[in-house]
Amino acid sequence: MPEVSPLLAKDFYHYPETLIVAAECDVLHDQGKAFASLLAQNGIAVTHITIPGTLHAFMTYPGMEKAYRSGLDAAVKFLQKKEKETMKTSVTPASIVRLSRIEVDPARLPEYLTLVTECGKKSMAQEPGVWMMYSMQEKAHPERITILEIYADPAAYENHIKTEHFQKYKNETREMVRKLELLDQNALIPSMKMK
After folding, report:
1. CA torsion sign, 83 to 88 to 94 to 99?
2. What is the largest CA-CA distance in the chain?
3. How far is CA 130 from the centre of its chain?
4. How do beta strands 96-104 and 144-151 pair?
5. DSSP string covering 21-47
6. In this predicted model, what pLDDT tens digit does every residue of 136-178 receive, in sequence order?
7. Residues 89-110: pLDDT tens digits?
């Protein structure tokens, strides 16, 4: 079972970026390397560090202060890096928050959904200043869609609307969209962090 041995895991969608600090002379060293390889094969960012000349549980052994410090420093640097990345995705007064409602021609709805999904995925994956692209359909009227967009700042928004994938979305959906309403909005939680 994966809860006991992570090497038995089959699903990796919930795994975060991972740091593995290993002891060189540990009987479990090769398992740690294999797990790091498995994470990488499944698209999880992973860093595997081996502390030379160490045994299992070296972090708690007396007389291994240098090894302890190496392991602790690696963990602290990893966490500090993650904290900096998180701070880069905090909504500030300079952030652009756009909320819009659209109504799509029902006959063209599948085509529209394909395009909006493609644009949103590319924006989230390729544009560092695009923090959220989220579309929601009404259950009773699936042709009515609400879109939430959050950008780091005006420059991120300006860069986004110049991208090839946005221009494709804009041009190809022009005739599909019957109604577009940009809602007046103001970010209520300026310190909100995006995941």
Report:
1. negative
2. 73
3. 11
4. antiparallel
5. EEETT-TTHHHHHHHHHHHHHTT--EE
6. 999 999 999 999 999 988 999 999 999 999 999 999 999 999 9
7. 677 788 888 889 999 999 999 9
Give the DSSP H/E element, type plus range, for residue 49.
strand 46-51
- Two tokens, residue 2: 């994966």
Q: What is the pLDDT of residue 162?
A: 95
> What's the token pair of residue 82?
């993650």
* Residue 65: Cβ-neighbour burial (10 angstroms; 0-12, 13-18, 19+): exposed
Pair of tokens at residue 190 = 């300026």
Opening angle at CA 29, ends 28 and 35, nearest 5: 90
What distance lies between CA 86 and its chain's CA centroid? 10
Whether residue 165 contacts residue 119, with contact meaning beta carbons closer than 8 Å, is answered with: yes
Residues 6 or more apart in contact with residue 164 via CB below 8 angstroms? none
Rounded Cα distance, 74 and 23, in Å: 13
Q: pLDDT for 2-45, tens place per residue?
A: 777 888 888 887 788 899 999 999 999 999 999 999 999 988 88
CA dihedral 123, 127, 129, 134 (to 10 degrees): 10
Token representation of residue 50: 């081996």
Q: For residue 142, which amino acid is it?
A: P
| CB distance 64 to 51 below 8 Å | no
d(CA 126, CA 116): 15
